[in-house]
Design goal:
With about 450 residues, this protein is α/β, with parallel strands linked by helices. It is built from 17 helices and 7 strands.
Length: about 450
């Protein structure tokens, strides 16, 4: 089993510093026990968020963040780096309540410091008390947790019962870029005429596989499909609020509160890593509010028809009253209709193929022979590899030679000494390091 030596943590695919950050995020995610309903967001793939590599947002709005520092001493410069990171974290996340700091060494104690002044442990504890007190004076609460080498080792042992995580992080010869590239080359060779790079075109399968693999252009999709609906709902919260009063109580209060939650959860969907939980929350909210909005729309229509007649539901009637009477008799009916239409548009956006692919853990491509399923999967694996994501392409023919895990282990170049559970841990650690989730695609 690989020895835990943070000086020898793997340097690929980027650097030892980047790998230590990824390990810290993985351990933080496994070790923190947040309350049910918390949302985990990793920021490493976006270059970090200034002060945190990743964080949990709790149901009460508080935030627990993690920061990793790959240095092996704690002098004034290093402590200043930690202090600056915390200041930035508090600026970006004002509700930060827990801050975990990972460093790859153990601090010197009081005896080691001797007559040379305060030990590293004393200096860190002094800084910790100072910043926690400053946050308390500002009206909030903050707990700083230091994870040193000893703590990290304990967390690794707790999260890695079969040794696969240690195998990946501290054995740089496994799951390298060269090995993954060779696996892709083997898949291309096996696919033969079923894959032709020169004929790669964008199809619905192309887009779906990219979102499934975490490399889809989520920002563009959000700008085109999600943001306009969020903007419309935000606007309706102002001018359309009165239209919901027709529901009476407690339905009107329920509708308003649910719509606020739906909007807030939709606005948190800024990257693929936060989509799954937030989209589930939005869908749940829509299932509650859509019947209420339909009820409000029907009630407003009845009220308008009773007063003005169904035949007055026309643009010319609205224009006449707006221009000559400075009145808007259809205003609340129109607002109720827009509420329902906007909520339905949001529901449609969340039911799109892109969102379905982005939030599932397995994907099945179905189609007749020769339609391009194999080509699509191999092409997606290559695009993903170019973006730093690792994929293993296996064919049905491969599984005629043995048990599935044996086939996967063989393709990755592992020997028989690596058990199935350890292989899974190793693959999971690799997915965390490259910034992409573990998932599977098949064809039929």
């Amino acid at each position: 089993m690989a020895t835990i030596d943070f000086n020898r943590i793997r340097s690929n695919p980027k650097s030892k510093n980047d790998s230590f950050e990824a390990l810290a995020v993985q351990l933080f995610k496994c070790s923190l026990r947040p309350p049910a309903g918390s949302t985990f967001v990793s920021l490493r793939g976006d270059g970090g968020d200034g002060g945190v590599e990743a964080y949990y947002r709790m149901p009460d709005g508080s935030v627990a963040g993690v920061q990793a520092k790959y240095f092996f001493q704690l002098g004034d410069t290093e402590l200043r780096q930690i202090d600056d990171s915390l200041a930035t974290a508090l600026k970006n996340h004002p509700s930060l309540s827990d801050y975990w700091v990972y460093i790859p060494f153990d601090l010197t104690g009081r005896v080691a410091a001797g007559a040379r002044g305060k030990s590293q442990a004393e200096r860190f504890e002094e800084w910790k008390k100072k910043v926690e007190a400053a946050v308390k004076v500002a009206g909030s609460m903050l707990s700083v947790t230091l994870c040193t080498a000893a703590v990290i080792r304990a967390q690794i042992h707790a999260s890695d019962p079969h040794g696969g995580m240690r195998r990946y992080w501290f054995d740089k010869s496994v799951l390298t870029q060269t090995q993954i590239q060779q696996c892709l080359d083997d898949a291309i060779a096996f696919a033969g005429p079923r894959y032709t790079a020169a004929l790669d075109v964008v199809t619905s399968a192309h887009v779906g596989l990219d979102f499934f693999g975490g490399i889809g252009d989520f920002a563009a999709w959000r700008e085109e499909s999600l943001q306009p609906v969020i903007t419309q709902l935000r606007s309706l919260m102002g001018w359309g609020d009165k239209a919901l009063a027709v529901l009476g109580e407690p339905d009107a209060t329920t509708a308003r509160a649910t719509l606020r939650l739906v909007i807030e959860a939709s606005e948190r969907m800024t990257d693929v890593s936060s989509v799954a939980l937030d989209s589930a929350e939005v869908k749940q909210g829509l299932s509650t509010v859509l019947p209420l909005l339909a009820k409000a729309r029907a009630a407003q229509e009845r009220a308008f028809y009773d007063e003005h007649g169904r035949d007055k539901d026309t643009p010319s009637f609205r224009q006449f009253h707006a221009e000559y009477m400075c009145a808007f008799p259809a205003g609340e009916m129109d607002a109720a209709r827009e509420w329902e239409q906007a909520a339905q548009a949001l529901q449609t956006a969340l039911s799109s193929p892109e969102m379905g692919a982005a939030t599932t853990r397995s994907l099945l491509l179905v189609g007749p022979a020769g339609i391009g399923k194999t080509h699509s999967i191999v092409s997606a694996a290559r695009r993903r590899f170019a973006r730093g994501g690792y994929s293993l392409v296996v064919f049905g023919d491969d599984f005629g030679r043995g048990e599935p895990w044996e086939v996967i282990r063989s393709k990755f170049g592992f020997g028989a000494d690596l058990a199935r559970a350890a292989l899974f841990e190793c693959m999971h650690a690799c997915a965390n390091n490259t910034g992409y989730r573990s998932s599977s695609t098949s064809t039929r």
